[in-house]
Amino acid sequence: MYERSSGHIEAITGGMFSGKSEELVRRLRRAVIARQRVQIFKPESDTRAGGDRVVTRDNRELDAIPVSTSAEMRKGLHWGVQVVGIDEAQFFDDGLGPLVNDLADAGIRVIVAGLDQDFRRQPFGPMPHILATAEYVDKMHAICVRCGAPAHYSQRIAGGGEQVQVGDTEAYEARCRRCYQEFQAQPMLFTQQEMDGS
Ligand SMILES: [Zn+2]
What we know:
By secondary structure, the chain is an alpha/beta fold. The protein folds into 2 domains: 4-140, Rossmann fold, CATH 3.40.50; 141-198, Wheat Germ Agglutinin (Isolectin 2), domain 1 (2-Layer Sandwich), CATH 3.30.60. It has helices spanning 20-33, 70-76, 96-105, 127-133, 177-185, 192-195; strands at residues 8-14, 38-43, 54-55, 61-62, 65-67, 83-86, 109-115, 136-140, 142-143, 150-151, 153-156, 172-175. Strands 5-2-6-7-1-8 form a 6-stranded parallel β-sheet, sandwiched between helices. A two-stranded antiparallel sheet has the order 3-4. The chain has a two-stranded antiparallel ribbon with strand order 9-10. A hairpin with a 5-residue loop joins strand 3 (54-55) and strand 4. Helix 3 (96-105) packs parallel to helix 4 (127-133). Bound molecules: zinc ion.
């Protein structure tokens, strides 16, 4: 049983395809099994199906609640919630960091999953704030599609230059530092399929 004073922030971060959402769901599912009151939020723009669902003890599915801002998330919180999960946190506004901190102060266990960097390797949205203030940070790694090494980056191999290109996972590949740099420097060395549209 969580005591009131045991609120804290857990951050799960890393590149695309690194299993952040699965890890979030795994932790939330255990909380549900322990009969804790759980809520999950995700950005409204996230249209992926089924990725962040938790099946509860009585076989109901606990769906992530889509919200477009951190203020909307604050309003959507149920009284007495004990565990709050947030997926794709990088897409939220800068109000997310302070909100997450307020929740932890109020005794809530907050588990935040999100990309640490965008495809240009720039810190992504409110994630730097959350990573700095979280008690626990787990950096997940995907597997580099080119060489099999642990992948720290999500390289955009097709599409435009905007930071947000939601739901289009085919435009990205997990890459290690070396392969990321090689692609940036000499994309001609890579296959035609990878080059299409870039
Ligand atoms: Zn590599």
